[in-house]
Amino acid sequence: MRDMDGRFANSRKILVTLLSGFLILLHVAGLWDTFKSGDLISADIYANIQSLLSVAIIISLLLVILGKKFGLVSMWASITALVLTQYGAHFGFYDAAFTEGRSAFSYLRGFMFPTAITLLYQFPKS
Fold first, then answer.
1. pLDDT digits over 38-86, tens only?
2. Angle (deg, nearest 10), helices 9-36 and 45-65
3. Distance (Å) of CA 67 to CA 3, 75, 108
4. Which residues contact 27 (CB under 8 A, 6 or more apart)?
5. Three-state DSSP class for residue 1
6. Contact 2, 67 (CB under 8 A)
7. Where do runs of H (alpha helix) occur along 37-126?
């Protein structure tokens, strides 16, 4: 991560890598489950959009790990798009089973790690 310097730069790099790596593994596991179940080909448009957004999130997080500033922008864009599709399902625009019994605020959890990654990445230089 070229742009990180200053105080605790190595610690911040490690934390960004760990958080990004966890999210990458989470999305790869989701894609793998979709692939193994055979839903990737027979899935509806909503599931295909979700899978495409997961791929975009993985790529953007790899860019963040590599220290590219565009990675942060693409991470936020792809994660926001994913959360918006979840809200679309929650409010009945798409048919999805995962919305049952969930609060509308529960989807905002998707912004916790990106916020931490951004704060660590943008930590003031001293």
1. 766 666 777 788 889 999 999 999 999 998 889 999 999 999 999 888 8
2. 160
3. 6, 12, 25
4. 54, 55, 57, 58
5. coil
6. yes
7. 39-42, 45-65, 69-90, 112-121
35 closest CA partner among 19, 21, 48 = 48
Instruction: Report d(CA 75, CA 117) in Å as an integer.
Output: 10
CB 12 within 8 A of CB 121: yes
Helix (H) or strand (E) holding 9: helix 9-36
Token pair listed for 118? 């951004």
Contact yes or no for 50/82 (Cβ under 8 A)? yes
In the three-class reduction of DSSP (H, G, I as helix; E, B as strand; rest coil), residue 125 is classed as: coil
Residue written as token pair 């922008």: 73
pTM for this model (two decimals): 0.84
- Note the Cα 82 to chain centre separation in Å: 8
Q: Is the pLDDT of residue 6 over 80?
A: no
At residue 3, the pLDDT reads: 58
The closest alpha carbon to 30, from 22, 18, 103, belongs to: 22
